[in-house]
């Protein structure tokens, strides 16, 4: 149950770090494309 991303008690408790990495990579890619 703790591995479920739909867990109502902890919505994506283990997902934030992954999202942060994706956001960081996305931000870098966007900045590179904008230049």
UniProtKB/TrEMBL annotation:
Biased composition (Basic and acidic residues): 1-12
Biased composition (Polar residues): 24-35
Xref: InterPro entries: Ribosomal_uS10_dom_sf
Residues making up the signal peptide according to the UniProt record: none
Coiled-coil annotated residue ranges, if any: none
Region (Disordered), start-end ranges: 1-35
Lineage: superkingdom: Eukaryota
Name of the protein this chain belongs to: Ribosomal protein S10 domain-containing protein
Species for this entry: Bracon brevicornis
